[in-house]
Amino acid sequence: MEVPETPSRPSRRISLRNQSKATAATEDSYESEQSLNQDEANESPDEFEEIRPKKKQNRTLDGTTSASVDLSNLAMIDVIRDNGKLIPQVVKLWLERYDKDPKPALTELLSTLFETCGAKYCIKEDLLDETDVDDVVVALVNLAKMGEAEDYQNSKKKAFKNFKDNLLSFWDILVIESQNGPLFDKILFDKCIDYIIALSCTPPRAYRQVATWSGLQLVTSLISVTKALSAQRETTHRQLTAEKSKQIEGSRLESLNKRFALTHKNIQTIEDLMRKIFTGLFVHRYRDIDPNIRMSCIESLGVWILSYQSLFLQDLYLKYLGWTLNDKNAGVRKASVLALQNLYEMDKNVPTLSLFTERFSNRMIELADDIEVGVAVSAIGLVKQLLRHKLVPDDDLGPLYDLLIDDPPDIRRAIGSLVYDHLIAQKFNPDQSGRKGNESNSSAVHLGRMLQILREFSADPILIIYVIDDVWEYMKAMKDWKCIISILLDDTSSTELTDEDATNLIRLLLASAGKAIGEKIVPTSDNRKQNLNKAQREMLENNKRDITVAMTKNYGRLLRKYMVDKAKISPLVEIICHMNLGLYSLKRQEKNFQTVLQLIKEAFFKHSEKETLRSCVKAIKFCTTESQGELQDYARKILKDLEDELVAKLKSAVKEVANGEDEYSLLVNLKRLYELELSSDVPIDSLYEDFVKTARDFKNLDEEVVSFLLLNMYLHVNWSMHTIVNSESVSETSLASLISKRNSLFERLVHFLNPPQEPDERLKLGSQLASRVCIILAEMWTLFSKKKFSSTKLERLEYHLDSEFVVKFWKLCEQQLSISDETEDDHANEEYVEETNRDAVMIAASKLVTNDTVSKEYLGPEIISHYVMHGASVSIIVKHLITSLKKKDDDIYSLLIEALKRAYNRHLLELSRNEDESSAGKHLQDCKGLAIQLSSTYVGFARNKHRLAILNIVKEGIDYAFIDAPKQLSFLEAAVRPFVSKLSTPDVLDILKDVEQRTENVNTDEDPSGWRPYYTFVEYLKEKYAKNEHIPEEKEGNTSKRRGRPRKRRNIEGKRLFDGQESSGEEDAISGSEKEDDHDEDEEDDEDAPLIHSMKASAAASAKLKSMRARRAQDDKATSRTSGASN
Length: 1127
Prior knowledge:
Layout: H1 2-17, H2 24-34, H3 38-43, H4 45-54, H5 76-82, H6 87-100, H7 102-116, H8 133-145, H9 163-177, H10 188-200, H11 205-245, H12 251-285, H13 291-307, H14 309-312, H15 315-323, H16 330-345, H17 354-366, H18 373-388, H19 398-401, H20 409-424, H21 430-433, H22 439-454, H23 461-471, H24 481-488, H25 499-516, H26 534-552, H27 555-561, H28 566-574, H29 582-586, H30 590-606, H31 610-626, H32 629-658, H33 664-677, H34 685-697, H35 703-725, H36 732-751, H37 767-783, H38 786-789, H39 803-817, H40 821-826, H41 838-850, H42 856-864, H43 872-888, H44 893-913, H45 917-935, H46 941-945, H47 947-961, H48 970-980, H49 985-997, H50 1008-1030, H51 1065-1068, H52 1072-1075, H53 1077-1085, H54 1097-1105, H55 1110-1126
Helix pairs in contact: 5-7, 5-9, 6-7, 6-9, 7-10, 9-11, 10-11, 10-12, 11-12, 11-13, 13-15, 13-16, 15-17, 16-18, 17-18, 18-20, 20-23, 23-25, 25-28, 27-30, 28-31, 30-31, 30-32, 31-32, 31-33, 32-33, 32-34, 33-35, 34-35, 34-36, 35-36, 35-37, 36-37, 37-39, 37-41, 39-41, 41-42, 41-43, 42-44, 44-45, ...
């Protein structure tokens, strides 16, 4: 018997080695076996049975070793968990066992199903038919309650990382391999589906999760079988039709009829199985409390509808995609949107989707402004599909275009693509998409449409930049430099520009040129330097070259044409910074370069607006540094001529003012000098004394003129200091000159800090000048601080700061901070408002503290006391100051308690005036807000780390409150209470004892209203102590921040798709979770919380009640007993 077996085994091994070393070898061999028809299998049963097991005995584990593996003794759960490559062989072996004896094989499969859920449970073979599904499921749930179930999917073990993929692969291969037999025996899959549906409705989340995956994969795999059967049915039908046309009765016709009927019956059987899973599993789990389960359901439904449209592409199934557009989980909403996107991409689906579109199109459009960026971007892509099919009117898209200036760049890019396709390229317009023309005409047309869009944003140039940035990637016409220039020069008769369009087109030209060379034209939080590869760098250089070539001969013409227009000249001048100046030499265009520089210089003296002046200075500076050879020499000559001419104009203007003439010329040229001095040192030594004299002697000067006099004096002193510090040797003359200039400037600045000598003098110190004085003083004190020059060669430059001046300085700062919002709004359109507003003043004062220029003991608490008084921007500045101080000195509690005292003193001061109680109340609220903000910095680990600091703040606060009691007792409620909440239970008890001891010998009945804050505070301490004693301290991390954009109010419509159709009660509950977001947040975090009604709600409720306050629980219990007795 052994002799014939010896040669047979090597032959099989050789045949396996000649095939691939993976599972595909076994699958291919089995597919070849299945190609045999049933008659052939019946004719040679022994041979047919011999083939399948022979090829299973010599498979290798993972394909890495030649040692044979005994798959017959390998449990299926081990393969699913650890070795997915063996699944095909194991499934085929199991099918062989099932063919021989179904009951033990089915029992094994069900045990494997239970084990994939994490529970070990076995049904007795002889009781398989009598065993009730519900009894088994109850037993499995009890195992989970006892902690005897394992969650493979959420396990951190590496061995289980492919568990889900292996599980889905197992069910898929089982269905595919069963299609020629067990799939249609009405036993195997019916029994499996019964248990899968039952497990999907159990409380343990792991059971529901695995059962849901299994059921969804069964439908997906059944669809692939059904599609193959449908193709076979169509082929048989064609053959049958052809045979019938011959009008010949025979065995072939009968065989075809039988085959067609059998195939149709099998398709019906599979569809019944799919409907069973859908109604038993999907309609419950698509609204499961676990968002991952809901997402899996919707993703699978999208695949089903797309792949088997004859059954699933109908409103009965589509409505679930529509309902889940309202799901509270972003992943579920996105899955629904992506599924719909795939459906609308196929034109043939659109007629069937008409009613669905009519019902849910508004919600699809709303999702373009979803709170989650990923959902919004996907929804915008879906809206594009709707537009392509003309399913939504243009009037409904108005809110979408507002997203062009939204914050997340991904949303802006997506809307930019939509705007380009729909409004500019008009790809969804059949009349436009069929037209053809040359490229230049197409660019002109596209630019014209873009200008129509930009008209909506003409009032704000920043918004125009946003729109350009959004569309730039998709619109080639923005990079057609020659077309843009020709339109601006009116070289094309087809396009007539209005003044507004010309301004916007020049802005577009500048922004597009910046984008083309790699600049970020829109502010972004990511300021990291871009790492470009060689190809990207070459592309940017080519873009710069193209811009330069297009502009070389036309730049001068553009500057001349728009020279007098202040809105156009600024961006036009700045374009030179995006050009390759070396090409002027290579193409022998030096003359044009010189002309451009002359025109830029002319623009500098023709205009006085900040933007134009800065653009001109930037352009000339760029030319002096980036050009080479003769071009660079000429650019430097232009800069020198400009400085000389400006100095001459200033001298003339100073004389005019001295002679009593108009100040306008002086103001304009001071602005020009200021913009020039911001980037380079301008030699104005001869003018400095004139500036000092003008600021000192002419008290009737406009405050803006005085502001720019002081600014230019400060910048000149700063440049002089910079020159001395960076010089190897310093002459006594230059040092003396700097000290003299510094003292003159300090004299002028301090003059504005002193009380007015004349009654009307203070009126001339307007908000702009006062802000400039505060900012320049802070910068000068920092520049000449003792810390900088102590023990150095330049020790003479030290400025000894008098603390009296610091107090006066802060008083002036407070005046600026207290300016009303209405007054600040009135100045919002001024050119230099960002340099003189509250933020600038607060930053200047904060720098004095962070740089240790002044003592932080005085100015630090003063600044911190204004934390919550002046809006969000000032609050951010103060918050950064506190953070900076903590980095330098971890223990700053003394500054914080002092800040609270000063905030409270403002309240007392208002009370003492007896003028306006509402003002005093506002200051008290500000003190409370300050305490809340400061105490909130001690959260989490910081509460334990800074326990002593918090305790000191509380103790010093209590001492302060009892000074002249009960006058200041409201300080306990306003400032101390927020910090008490950060203390531990023993500390709270100590504080309570200390506070109560302070009133042992005090008659508080003499002034009950005055002592009311004391009793309120004591009651709070007792409540806090009792709460902490009975309940574990609440963790700071419990409140999680919502990620994504701020939530916007959504208009969620009802969920019924058809008025004439009724849906089940479970289906009607789809919006329940959406309407009860706040109540479901905690439930979603509970891993054991089920969705179905069979969950043990009473047990969960009792567990939660144990963590409630003892006092409230007792009250509730007493109330319930009383009501029960009364009934």
